[in-house]
């Protein structure tokens, strides 16, 4: 019984350590890393100011092209931008290339995703990596119709 208890305690310590390492890795940037040519972050707009609301809901992803979870999100953002063009907008802002954006958006951690309705009202924030499925679920939660040609009104 003692052996089982010791082994269980050791496994729990290892799990806690792995969880802590994973959490830190998602928050801290990876210096010297850069995105691959085939998967650029966002759509190249990272240093331009955000355009005024267009009437479409918008997702603004604030991150950096050298941050690991941000790099993991780049292909997801590109997919969403392509698949849901005309339904909602997707914007990427590199806060390392545009440091003023961090203050402007009240940023604490990257990546941070901000969901806006078509009028520019903030609906929700998410901190850290978010999957395509979770992004779409967030839009649905706010009553955003994900079909082309739909009227977009938040609940």
Helix/strand layout:
Elements lengths: L1 H26 L30 E6 L4 H16 L5 E6 L5 H5 L7 E5 L5 E6 L4 H10 L14
Parallel strand pairs: 1-2
Antiparallel strand pairs: 1-3, 3-4
Report on the structure:
With 155 residues, this protein is of the alpha+beta class. It has one domain: Glutaredoxin. The chain is built from four helices and four strands, in the order αβαβαββα. The protein has a four-stranded mixed beta sheet, covered by helices on one side. The longest helix has 26 residues, at 2-27. The chain is elongated, with a radius of gyration of 19 Å. The termini are far apart.
- Reading off the top of the CATH hierarchy, the class is best stated as Alpha Beta
- What gross morphology would you assign? elongated
Low-confidence stretches: 16-45
Distance N to C terminus: 56 Å
**Biggest sheet descriptor:** 4 strands, mixed
CATH level 3 topology: Glutaredoxin
CATH architecture: 3-Layer(aba) Sandwich
Order of helices and strands: HEHEHEEH
The CATH homologous superfamily is called Glutaredoxin
Individual helix count: 4
Strand line-up across the major sheet: 2-1-3-4
Q: Quick one: how many beta strands?
A: 4
Percentage of β-strand residues: 5-15%
- Rounded radius of gyration (Å): 19 Å
Summed over residues and divided by their number, the pLDDT gives a mean of 78
């Amino acid at each position: 019984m003692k052996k089982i208890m010791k082994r269980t305690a050791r496994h729990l310590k290892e799990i806690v350590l792995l969880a802590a390492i994973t959490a830190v890795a998602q928050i801290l940037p990876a210096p010297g890393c850069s995105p691959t040519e085939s998967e650029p972050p966002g759509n190249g707009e990272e240093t331009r100011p955000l355009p005024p609301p267009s009437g479409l809901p918008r997702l603004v992803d604030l991150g950096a092209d050298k941050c690991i979870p941000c790099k993991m999100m780049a292909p997801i953002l590109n997919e969403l931008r392509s698949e849901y063009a005309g339904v909602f907008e997707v914007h990427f802002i590199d806060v390392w290339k545009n440091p003023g954006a961090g203050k402007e958006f009240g940023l604490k951690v990257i990546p941070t995703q901000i969901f806006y309705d078509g009028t520019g009202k903030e609906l929700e924030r998410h901190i850290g990596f978010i999957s395509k499925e979770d992004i779409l679920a967030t839009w649905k939660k706010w009553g955003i119709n994900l079909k082309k040609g739909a009227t977009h009104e938040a609940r």
